[in-house]
TrEMBL record:
InterPro entries: DYW_dom, E2_motif, E_motif, PPR_At4g14850-like_plant, PPR_rpt, TPR-like_helical_dom_sf. The keyword Transit peptide applies. Keywords: Repeat, Transit peptide. Pfam families: DYW_deaminase, E_motif, Eplus_motif, PPR, PPR_2. One of its GO terms (molecular function) is RNA binding. PPR repeats lie at residues 155-189, 262-296. This is DYW domain-containing protein. Residues 505-597 form the DYW domain. One of its GO terms (biological process) is RNA modification.
Amino acid sequence: MPPAPATATAAAAAQHLESVLPCLTTLSHYKQFHAQLITSARLYFEPSLRARFLDRLALSAHAAALPHALLLLRSLPSPATNDLNAALRGLAASPHPARSLLLLAGRLLPSPSPPRPRLDALSLSFALKASARCSDGPATLQLHALVLRLGCTADVRLITTLVDSYAKCDDLASARKVFDEMTVRDVASWNALLAGLAQGTEPTLALKLFHRLVGSFRELPPREAPNEVTMVAALSACAQIGSLRDGLYVHEFVRKMGVSGNVRVCNALIDMYSKCGSLARALEVFHSIKREDRTLVSYNTAIQAISMHGHGGDALKLFDEMPTCIEPDEVTYIAVLCGCNHAGLVDDGLRVFHGMRVPPNVKHYGTVVDLLGRAGRLAEAYDTIKSMPFPADIVLWQTLLGASKTHGDVELAELAATKLAKLGSNVDGDYVLLSNVYASKARWADVGRVRDTMRSNDVRKVPGFSYTEISGVMHKFINGDKEHPRLQEIYRALEEIMSRIGELGYEPETSNVLHDIGEEEKQYALSYHSEKLAIAFGLIATPPGETLRVIKNLRICGDCHVVAKLISKAYGRVIIIRDRARFHRFEDGQCSCSDYW
């Protein structure tokens, strides 16, 4: 180790290095600064300056900067806690966050390693951020044990990071337990759990937590007062479950909080209103944002909203109106292509696809295959798959299989089914589509072979279910539901519905039902699809004229689509159904999709 620097010029030299540090931009600059630290001996005798240099080096955007920071750390005879933390922070934010956990465990230090630096709350915080990015639940559990062993449970920021890590590892029960055990919280603590629940599998619990927060708002200390991040998380929960009533409540609270002009909040409002079936409100929020304040996310969210509701021409128009200072990204192109797909704008969709200013990924290709397949241009759809620079995935072949079924192309359907089998797909829908293609050509032996394959492969049908919100309560229905407390009324209403729409010419479409049951059984199976039960309940549980909103986990079937159109005409209701792909707005016997879906 070189001798300590002379005191006469030490202060001036140190001051010079301190002033240079913020100006470092290139790897060459960092190496020159590193050399200065070594030759002036400040690498060893100025630990504060060294740690700040390490921190800046580890977080640099230059690809070789982080490895250089790790080399520097390994070269130190006695690294300090701040040195370790700088490297942990850089690794946690890098494309390989798991290496932060290896460093914490000492496995990235030389062997035999120098004395390990002591860990502190900051060390654990960076490691927890790494485990969250890796979704590494066991690592988060081990870090939790370290938090307890080191006595850091009073550190609010650290425990908040622990809550966030558990939530991002899908261990929501542990996240809630840690949150409930906190004796002191701040708004970040509430936001961490709220976002975890909303973006995970518990959006309903997220809304309950939000109501709990708002209910005690007046008694909360200022540090726990909700902010725009709270609002975004709550709106995300509303969007996920499609609860317009809760969404309106959160929007009202946004106004009371005075954050309705915040662009992030506005973007979340657009997304929420769109996914709750209220496109008009979504666009009202979008147009309320000043043009110069709109971000790429604002445009992406609005274009997605318009596309999901079947207005492809309007989606294209908004895309073309994007200011030149905002460059479209992958999400933008997916949104526009979906709009063209849902509206049948084939030529416009191909124009957008071929004019993309970012490399297309498998989702872009998949949307184009669907676009061409729906239009009956199956040869072009297949050529698109063959032209891809990467292998087609299961979704792409399922898309081609669906198009082959729609247009009765047996050869292409068999090809797609073979590809799906090779990729390990064992979804009931694949077999049903192929079976229906054979049935349309009266190839009953092949229908039987498909049915036998399903039995031998133990193929299970994905259960269909639907939700509808009545008076602030979400009601769930499954196909052939037997559990709802008003079941008898619903089934009687459904019988009356079938009678009334029968007078309008309704005949059950049994083609999507498996062919191993009789026609009467097929009609019975169709009659009690979950969306029909949800609509029937909505008719008896809401006043005449009120809009009915239904959320379906699967794509709506052809028969339910026909039934919803006829109900809208027979009962004078607007019915909005959100399935896994898009929205359908039924009014006066017509659907917003124009039967192109």
